Amino acid sequence: MPPIVSINRVSKRYASGHQALTDVSLDIAEGEILALLGPNGAGKTTLISTICGIVTASSGTVTVAGYDNVSDYRKTRELIGLVPQELTLGAFDTVWNSVSFSRGLFGKRPHPALLEELLKELSLWEKRDSMLMTLSGGMKRRVLIAKALSHEPRILFLDEPTAGVDVELRKDMWRLVERLRQSGVTIILTTHYIEEAEEIADRVGVIDGGRLLLVDDKNRLMHEMGRKQLEIELKQPLAALPAGLDRWDLSLAGDGSRLIYTYDTQARSTGITALLQAIHDAGLSLKDLKSKQSSLEEIFVDLVNMKP
Amino acid sequence: MNWHAVRVIYKFEMLRAWHTLLQTILSPVISTSLYFVVFGAAIGSRIEQVEGVSYGAFIVPGLIMLSLLTQSISNASFGIYFPRFTGTIYEVLSAPISFYEILLGYVGAAASKSLIIGTIILVTAGFFVELRIAHPLWMLAFLILTCVSFSLLGFIIGIWADSFEKLQLIPLLVITPLVFLGGSFYSVEMLPPAWQTVTLFNPVLYLISGFRWSFFEVADVSVGLSLFMILLFLAICSAIVWWMFKSGYRLKQ
Ligand SMILES: Nc1ncnc2c1ncn2[C@@H]1O[C@H](COP(=O)(O)OP(=O)(O)O)[C@@H](O)[C@H]1O
Ligand SMILES: [Mg+2]
């Protein structure tokens, strides 16, 4: 199946001279959930804005469902819904009018039944006649989601959807995302909360300094990039590592009462058996053993630190 | 053509006036009445007639133009500036809509509003003086052309402005003086010769003159010239808008 969104060597330099994106290429498959991870200023919003047509790329092309997003912008934009990062909403409009406005803007005839269903799903139905300016931040975020979905997009962009959002809305949002996924909607979300990507994404892209550092299947990424740590608790604390143990990647923690051994899960041999033997030979006695898998967060930090 | 989009933008902009309906209708009615009290009654009693027309009636076209110009500019400039200011413009920019459809929605609504206000002033004036419209179709043509071209100017200002001060600047510093010095309340012939020449460089003079001709068949300059000037103004504004859209000026990064 051809990708629903194809980004081909896109770079963006703002008028200020700031290079926000450098040579980004990425294919997004129809129906997948892709998380774009990156610290503040990485270029996530710029990348999304470029696909949606708000920002013009300095070079490179974007196609959506096979159409170029500049020359065939009507066809590409019709398919896309965007929930922006900032709470950008008017003031003197009601929730209902605002959502109806969005639907019309995207060229769809009025469909009150559909909007009613959408507002109910987002717990906005009771607020439909409220002025936007009277809503709380969380409610505004819900309105923005309703606006983005009002024209039944096939692709949904969520730009940092859970930044500063309460637990309730977070749950509602993930339920909605799940329903949209079931109906085949492609979802691209940006976040700097790694647990979020870990929880819901199929694939993860890591972006930093305007470069896409990698894109991979989430599970494979965690498997391949993942390291494990073995935590060895000792009966007597150590002042320094005994001489016999320096050929392992060991560190001392907890005032010398714990040894931390980091190893690669992909290595042919983990070296654990030999290490335990060496610890025994050094005359140390063990109190406890624990092992843990590194999280996506640690993988991410490693990646960002690794870049030149 | 994305007519649904044009419709919702137009409706949104018209609703904005609806929320302040009382103000939208009352303020032109009150200010027109005040002008009549001050100019028509106080000054008019001394001037009596200008070029065979009673002074009270003579100032009606100028009064309408004054409101039309300021209303068109402020409505259209605010309409596009505000979403830029709040950031909600992202939605319009990411929608499957061409710049010309955006223009049609915003400028169409602003022009409609001024047209309605112009009509209200005309009707209000009818209560104070006896009005005679010699060429109703020409009057309508001048009315519509003025509303459209100055709404277009307002739209340009709304895109150019990057602060509320700038938004107010042009109407305040440029348009209001031009209107007052453009023969709204007097015939150019009443001025000393040197000032008559200076006034000929005021584009608003041609608007008011042509518009007044459609009422009373008296004009400071020929009607053809008036029409030419307003079409020229329309063409210049259109060209600026075309360039703004083509370059993405202050809309797209
Ligand atoms: N309109 C703009 N003009 C100049 N620089 C910008 C503009 N928008 C964003 N930037 C810069 O581009 C970089 C990427 O921004 P952004 O895409 O918003 O990052 P993210 O969404 O990942 O936080 C940042 O350094 C930001 O300051
Ligand atoms: Mg961002």
Key descriptive features of the protein:
heterodimer; A: 308 residues; alpha/beta; Rossmann fold; Alpha-Beta Plaits; 2 domains; 6-stranded mixed β-sheet; 10 helices; 33% helix; B: 253 residues; mainly alpha; two-stranded antiparallel sheet; 11 helices; globular; binds adenosine-5'-diphosphate; binds magnesium ion
General description of the model:
The complex is a heterodimer of chains A (308) and B (253). Chain A is of the alpha/beta class and 308 residues long. Chain A has two domains: 5-222, Rossmann fold; 227-295, Alpha-Beta Plaits, CATH 3.30.70. Chain A has ten helices and 14 strands. Chain A has helices at residues 44-52, 73-78, 95-105, 112-121, 137-149, 167-182, 194-200, 218-225, 272-281, 296-306; strands at residues 5-13, 19-28, 33-37, 59-64, 67-68, 80-83, 155-159, 186-191, 203-208, 211-217, 227-234, 250-253, 258-264, 286-293. Chain A has a six-stranded mixed beta sheet, sandwiched between helices. In chain A, a hairpin with a 2-residue loop joins β9 (203-208) and β10. The radius of gyration of chain A is 25 Å and the shape is elongated. Chain B has one domain (3-247). Chain B is built from eleven helices and two strands. In chain B, α1 runs parallel beside α6, α4 (60-86) runs antiparallel to α8 (164-180) and α10 packs across α11 (223-247). The radius of gyration of chain B is 19 Å and the shape is globular. Chain B starts with a helix and ends in a 6-residue tail after the last helix. The relative contact order of chain B is 0.14. The mean pLDDT of chain B is 88. Chain A binds chain B through residues 14-15, 49, 52-56, 73-78, 80, 82, 84, 86, 88-93, 97, 100-109, 147, and chain B through 2, 4-5, 7-9, 12, 15-16, 19, 83, 86-88, 90-98, 248, 252-253. The structure holds adenosine-5'-diphosphate and magnesium ion.
